[in-house]
Amino acid sequence: MAPTPVALPISSTASILPSPESPIDASTPVQEIPVLIVGAGPVGLLEAVLLSKMGIRIRIIDREPHISPFSRAQGTLPRTLELLAMIGDGFIDKLFAQGKPLQEASFYYGSRPRCTIPLVPSGVSRYEQPLFMEQERLSKVLAKELEDMGVPIEFGWELVDTEVVESAEDTHVKTVIRQSVAPEGEEQEIRVIRSEYLIAADGGRSTVRHKVNIMFPGRTLPHKNVMLDGIIDTDLELKDAMSIIGVNQKTLLFFAMSDNIYRVVLEMEDFSPDEDLDKINRELTIEDFERHVRECLHPGTKFNVIETQWLTCIRFNERRAERYIHKDRIFLAGDSAHVHSPAGGQGMNTGLLDAYNLAWKLALVLNKLAPPCLLQSYQEERVPMADRAIALSSMLLAGNSDKGVVRHYFKMLLLMVAPLLVYINPTVIPRMVNMLDIRYPVNIINLPHKTQAQPKDEIHQVGARAPDGPLLLVRPFSVSEDIFSADNDAATSPKEQRVYVQELTVGVGRFHILVLVGNSLSDLTSFKTREAELAQHIQEHLLQWCTRWHYTLSPDDKDSQLFKIHTIATGITSESHGNGLLAQRAQGNGRLFWDNSAEVHASYGVPAQAKACRSADDMEQQGAIVVIRPDSYIGFRVLGVGKGAWADVSDYFQTVLA
């Protein structure tokens, strides 16, 4: 979905500050800021939103005069949507108002439809269908979020030089910026920014990466594609997403955009060694594009371009920065760190996950809640994800563009058997493409229990994505308001309301603790005793943690609590549960939820059937406590919900936090 810019050759590091390019002196204005973000594309904007919501002052600059109207990326994948939903305050609804879920993919041979494959969710996530929304629209939603927080985006400013200044007394980043376009009759203004950290989200041609001399090894691919965004007139039955195997064995793709605009991507012959991309784009015409498209279709098929927004030839690179962190102060994210072909839609989404991974760690360090060594886990976790995205996009691109008669007829065979394959397995988008299978390695933030063995299934282990699943909120029986709604299942009790795990685990930069107790609370003869013991553990540890570690956010922030606890039980609810201590708790303070189908317990690898309660020691042997990181991955898990298990969770936080 995201055509990757051509990477510039690596140049040696120029003399930094001052230099002929950056004529600074004692009169040059200097601003101090905790974080400077270079690049106001989706990755930089998301980083700015997240850090600002966690009380970190930022400055974000971009050399362009405004958000680019050209949308390289078109889709936001399920895992990205899950993380964006964690921002809360209806942010995910703003995105869905600007786009639409992709519900099916259509496949053609020439002008003739072969099959349409519905994108049937498997239940793994509430966002299993990618959201079709142009990059420009996502950027504008993020920009509006910053505007509402009073954080300006400084367009028209470019980075000239940057370096990490190290001394015995202080370490900081010193950056020279200037106006990329000066007002008529005026010289370009130059300023110096002194920041604790700098985040480079300035794309595949990253100036930051060049200035700090981080190598960008990889390869330039031979594939040539021409892409058009515009209004078209055709007698093809246009769908939201169409893949056409041309009668000339070329591949042709159609994607619906907003305002009746379609993106058309046309496979061409590979680049020859002496071809120049800039020259191709200068000579590219609509007439040539129309002719090449018609050659893919059956004779007589109408295809005309009525209006053009963007016509360009694309060349793909597969490159990854040799490191993401420079002297513990400068971080690469998004295309400045990795580029590859758009196959599989991994580009922008990988960058957005970079931003989320880095933001909460940086905020914890800047808020003096975690040691600086936590930031090393950004590189440890995200470099393998870039390698994964490059390998996946390379595999998909190779499969789509392989030449030859044998490969052509193999594609035709797949078109014929695809509906049968969907009938056998309706989940047609693999978790790998959706990024739902990402698992981070054991490190400073993903800590296995010291004595308990990790679960055999990797999806339950530390570093894995925190699964979603439906729950019922146990409402206090003293509440009189009508809680029935159209969204609730008809079988839901009047005192229970449906909610999902990922609806509980919202909030930027926050740890969520799931206390999965199985059916240990369903025995009414022991309910009060067991609930009282559990409530005491929750109250004691929540008070202890929130007293020691807490955010200092803006004065209008109503909830700066770093920890939220949610109790999840199986079994059958009764009036006693609605009158219990946990049902009376505010959400996040241990409030009780019912895992009616035991689906959530199974998702976290926790037995739903607890042992019979004979003594307080039984609490140590049943259920589990799972710590979910602020970016919705499992950080720690311990079997048992008794005193020992809570002590282990406290030890985890004392290890991870400052």
From TrEMBL:
Superkingdom of this protein's organism: Eukaryota
Record key words, sorted: FAD, Flavoprotein, Oxidoreductase
InterPro entries in the record: FAD-bd, FAD/NAD-bd_sf, Phe_hydrox_C_dim_dom, PHOX_C_sf, RIFMO-like, Thioredoxin-like_sf
Recorded coiled-coil stretches: none
Boundaries of every FAD-binding domain copy: 33-391
Cofactors (names): FAD
GO molecular function: FAD binding; oxidoreductase activity, acting on paired donors, with incorporation or reduction of molecular oxygen, NAD(P)H as one donor, and incorporation of one atom of oxygen
Domain Phenol hydroxylase-like C-terminal dimerisation residue range list: 503-657
Family: Belongs to the PheA/TfdB FAD monooxygenase family.
Protein name per UniProt: FAD-binding domain-containing protein
Species the sequence originates in: Podila minutissima
